[in-house]
Task: structure prediction
Amino acid sequence: MPAEAHTERGPGLRRAQGDDGDRIEAFGDWTLLHAITLADQVERTGSRAARLDFRGITRLDASGALLLERLTERRGQTARDAGLPERWQRVFEAVDQACDDRPADDPPDEPAWRQVLERIGRATVEIATSTRELFGFLGLTLHRLVRTLLQPKRLRLTSVVHHIEQTGLDAVPLLILLAALVGAVIAFLGATVLADFGAELFVVDLVAFAFAREFGVLLTAILLAGRTASAFCAQIGMMKSREEIDAIRILGLDTVEVLVLPRLIALLIALPLLTFLATLAGLFGGLVVSVVSLDINLSLYIERVEQTLTLRQYLIGMIKAPIFALVIALIGCLEGLRVSGTAQSVGEHTTTAVVRSITMVIVIDALAAIYFMEIGW
Result:
């Protein structure tokens, strides 16, 4: 009869008086079946100082051990000091260790200066890693290019022609419009300054030099960096997300030879041709301003351009075109191959391809301008 009363009462906590002061005794089966009732009793225990006594626990599982762990942590005692029977010690220790491994809810905020230094360090490491990957990809691509040139039958001519049309022919209208407008703006600005000296005729020299050496190739490269590098990255990235690149490898085909080389060769052909068109468009924009606003007739404009421009001046701009094409194609294709497979990753790497391509084009152009100035060209 007493045993039945004890069973109906169930497990729980009770206060008891002893020779050593107040005690909180845990008794009965601390299992999942009684977890809700036991959790309420643990919360109502209060914070009054009292020694814990777990000797009366008859059964224990993970849920009960978690409640005991909460109780011992609140009281600043250990289960062993509370007399937890030895056969339940292993369960309690496993739960206690799992609770210790949980991350803190509110990690302390780091100082602002440390966060800034951390971001600078991460950016530096990322730039160094990306540069190393780009040079490695450059070496791999050049190796495949040399092998293709030695074995012309490996060249995918249809793909090359398709990408020439996509990167070159489709960009002609926009490029001509931008170059002509920039040429007109340069002529207007030059006329504004040179008019004070009565030297409006030298506007022709300014436009001719600017487009032959710098703006023709730079405008073309920036336009293709935003238009073509993003297209290369998105195309290859979507192929990777659809596992088409894995299929190409399973078929025994070389990824660089199939995907990268046609795009690279197409851009190496298209960008110099577009640079030539951009230079002509810029000169035309300057011509319109000169004839309409500066009273410089057509024959005088053409004669001045012939006197100003030399083959060396034109080649200074054209030399940079293949370099820009190489950089834009490699960055676009590399970022496409780095896509992890999700749509978000495609967007992120496409943005990265555009930003890095434009940055590299401007940096290389600035270094080239300094170099040619130093050698007297």
User: Anything to note?
Assistant: The chain has two domains: 2-100, 122-374. Residues 122-374 form one domain.
